[in-house]
Amino acid sequence: MQNEKNEKFHEGRRDFMKQGTLLAGGMLAAPILSHANYFSGAADVIKVALIGCGGRGSGAAVQALRTKQNVQLVAMADAFRDRLDDAYKNIKEGVEGNESRVNVPESNKFVGFDGYKQAIALADVVILTTPPGFRPIHFEEAIKQGKHVFMEKPVATDPAGIARVLATAEQAKAKKLNVVVGLQRRYQNSYRELFKRVQDGAIGDILSMQVYWNQGALWVKPRKPEYTEMEYQMRNWYYFNWLCGDHIVEQHIHNIDVGNWFKGALPVSAVGMGGRSWRNGKEYGEIFDHHYVEYRYADGVVMNSQCRHWKDSTSRVDEELVGTKGRVMCDRAVILDHKGNTIYKFDKKNENNPYQTEHDELFEAIAKGEYKFEDAKRGAETTLSAIIGRMATYSGQTIPWEKALESNINLQPAKYAFDAPPPIIPGADGLYSYAKPGTLKYFS
Amino acid sequence: MTKKTVAFLLPALLTGAAFAQTKTEFTAYDQKVPGSEISFKMVPIKAGEFMIGSPASEKNRSADEGPRKKVAVEAFWMGATEVTFEAYDFYADPDKETNLPDGMTRPSPPYIDLTLGMGKAGGFPANSMSQYGALMYCKWLYKKTGVFYRLPTEAEWEYACRAGSTTAYPYGEDTSKLSQYAWFAGNSESKYHKVGELKPNAWGLYDMLGNVAEWTLDQYDADYLAKMDAKSPWNKPTAKNPRTIKGGHYADPAGRLRSAARLKSDMDWNRRDPQIPRSYWWNADSPFIGFRLVRPVKQPSAEEVEKFFEEIVDQYKGSR
């Protein structure tokens, strides 16, 4: 029986993981699977559980199912039944001809706050794509249960969550579980090529960095009379910090990560400004619509970071890094000297789909029994970089990275239940209070 | 729908005798976008015949541009320019269009700003929408104005672009003059420009070539010219894709901007959409695509219009 074989494969893998030793270069000593009969029977199935069934989760599931390996989706979990059902339908359509890879019986569909545990238990690889506030507890559970992980960015919304993810990252490393974080620029050909050249000195030493995510408005989910406050916030999650972390954390993290990556360092502190210019209505919760942050690195280099959701304004999603010898324009994928001459231009014909590549590389490593990916630590570090940006714009204070980590500030509710109160409640006028710089203080 | 009804519907939509809205004079006019301060100019394109496609001798020709064929096209008005960002966004933005007609949906906000910093306010072309997104704009305009606007058929588009010419470009053969009429790789600096800044063709149409390439109403078929009807041809869609796109765009070399050049829409233009279901409204990677409106002089009846929206728009939701 297929299940029996899966079980054996699973057991075998776990035992192997316990005994596996790393060779130089981070490769496991021997493959889990015999390649001779790989792809030849049910024993090679890699089972996936999807935790968080929104549009991005469905996309990630389809990307996993499109890899060359014999991947099957076997379990799904979401807080909401309707979201889970939509995702199931959309994934079936999305795999275009590989419907047999979607193998989720009713008994493997888990609804509610706690379903993730059962779903994780049924799989070899777990996809974590809920709103980011839940990431630390889901990641912890996945590693506890010995599973490989693909998780979307950001990996937390508060310092306490970061501490938890960092601790779990250590566990993942000890257990040699592959973890890929969806900071997909790291898996994008143009960025990889630019990075290589910057490493080789194409722009000399980096002197300053400008990173941008300036765009228009995002989606809003309307409140319905039957919703509890908890359900409303869960559905309109973008606008609540315990769930989303504000757009500097949820979105702009991509560009901040590029700065950290190319600089090969983390910022030591952040100071900045931000606010709500137009997004003042009750449907917009508590988050800002713009942030401008000056990140400083230990050597004095500054990264200027700007992100905003302003309609009908100049838009730019990009990173521009200036060095002693030249500059990198990441979105254009060019390196220029200081006279404006092009030193290097990436041919966009060679661009890949990084969202697919993340999964291609992860599942190949898993199938070969290799331990190659430990993205969780840097994912957490870069998420905290974005979080100190938010703390800086909210408070008006300078926020040291280390101090923020030690603060253990926690935005999560005491209890995850639809009848429980979320950490922030609207006033009588339906409006949510939001941060007032100069008034809000994180550290005494 | 039965084949019979389709056969009846086709000519009615393209050349039908029923009138929804009568405009007595066949002259240029400005259409106001209802509820806004925005208006766009429509210019008259008289009925006529022309040779569609390119001769085998034409430089940079592709095989799908032949065999040349004489076709007849009915009269219509055509947008003097591509649909602008402001005009499209008025429909897309819930803060601007606060009066969405019953049963209408509007584009979801794209996950990233698909203008990619090339410009928005002040008359830049709307870009990156799927064909469905372009057709839904037509549907919205119809619900708001009672006038049936749609995308041009491939034949109508080329007829209007040529404006009586038989040369590679509407003004002649000389690519050195192209910069006076079109934004393309040679002069665009890799971005689109405000509509109507360059010279129009002989019939008063701006940016037919270059700037953003334009969606048509036809399903793409490489052998279409061989099968094309001689009167009011339309390769009616039978699937969500591919579609024919005309005119070339700001990143194209001159050879791709010839009147006869055809572009086949490509699913790869949305491969970087990380979500499932993929956006019905937007392509993540085709910032060079936009559209222009036409209004057939012989307006179809209300029933025919509804059928058109059912068959061409709703049935192929997310066409791209």
Automatic annotation (TrEMBL), chain A:
Sorted UniProt keywords: Membrane, Transmembrane, Transmembrane helix
Coiled-coil ranges from the UniProt annotation: none
Name this polypeptide is given: Gfo/Idh/MocA family oxidoreductase
Species the sequence originates in: Chitinophaga horti
Domain GFO/IDH/MocA-like oxidoreductase: 191-328
Residues in Gfo/Idh/MocA-like oxidoreductase N-terminal domain copies: 46-174
Pfam short name (any one): GFO_IDH_MocA_C3
Transmembrane segments: 21-39
PROSITE patterns, per database record: TAT (PS51318)
From TrEMBL, chain B:
Domain Sulfatase-modifying factor enzyme-like: 41-269
Entry keyword Chaperone: no
Record bears the keyword Secreted: no
InterPro entries (alphabetical): CTDL_fold (IPR016187), Sulfatase_Mod_Factor_Kinase (IPR051043), SUMF_dom (IPR005532), SUMF_sf (IPR042095)
Alphabetized UniProt keyword annotations: Signal
Record-linked Pfam families: FGE-sulfatase (PF03781)
Signal peptide limits: 1-20
Protein name: Formylglycine-generating enzyme family protein
Protein species of origin: Chitinophaga horti
